[in-house]
Amino acid sequence: MKKLLISCLLAFFALEAMAQQDPMYTNYMFNKLVINSGYTGSKDRATAVALYRTQWTGLEGAPKTTSFSFHTPLMGWAKNVNVGISAVHDKLGISQDLDLALHAAYRLDLGVGRLGMGLSGQVRRRQMSWQSANGFQQYDPGIPANDDLVAPNFGAGLYYDMPNFYAGFSLPNLLETSYDFDQAAASTSSEAVQRRHMFFMTGGVVELSPTVKFLPSGLLKYESNSPVELDVNASVLLAETFQLGMTYRTGDAVAALVHFFFKQLRFGYSYDFGLSELNQHHSGTHEIMLGIDFGKKSKGIDHPRYF
Known about the structure:
Layout: H1 2-18, E1 46-54, E2 64-73, E3 81-92, E4 95-109, E5 114-128, E6 147-162, E7 165-171, E8 177-183, E9 188-194, E10 197-204, E11 206-209, E12 212-223, E13 229-238, E14 242-249, E15 253-262, E16 265-274, E17 285-294
Antiparallel strand pairs: 1-2, 1-17, 2-3, 3-4, 4-5, 5-6, 6-7, 7-10, 8-9, 10-12, 11-12, 12-13, 13-14, 14-15, 15-16, 16-17
């Protein structure tokens, strides 16, 4: 019975390791830095975004993700250089990851639009709280000690933007890092591999009237051991103040989102309706986001914050 518990845990962890491993975001269009380092400094001012996502509410051990990012352009001789930081904490069952990253991007003016070429350096701390598992018996010696592993990684991204259009491609993790869990007490071992993920994002603005804008966007996610996942969003921006939209995520969920803009603040909320068989075991996914822009733009005009 002792070995059965460990085998189940290892099988669960192996399945998790082969699936889409990077956290997903419904409000990805306002949380781009954690996905694409080429986005660094694209708003031409200091910007901070905080986001919290609780997935599959009511399901024990369901994913919970917290992220924070800050980025800003530099001044003077380094006016085309932009820097930023991000932190992402992702918890799933008895495992949790903490990613800390430094971002830098050089933004090149192409005449029609700008191209951001970004790099990131990051450290991931992966913890497995085996002792938090519910054993078949109290103080089961077959449950191994907790694991706490740290590994570095690097990322790269390209981000092209115009006032009414953007597109980006990124590889947040260039290295495929292996995490070896040596479970001596269980006479077995487990290896989890952080796979290389690719992201492609795009979006635009179509002016329907002076007070109504249509904002389509999409995010494509690919990892070699998982099905391609596509998020497609259609939103309407009203009077530069309210944004209402719907998102479809292939094979997973349909989401409704609302954003409110007030001066340099923006607040967002989304709710995901699950479409898979897992839907009968939870009551949906909630995500809230808060963003703030500091000061005036360092260059250019202060056009509406469509993205």
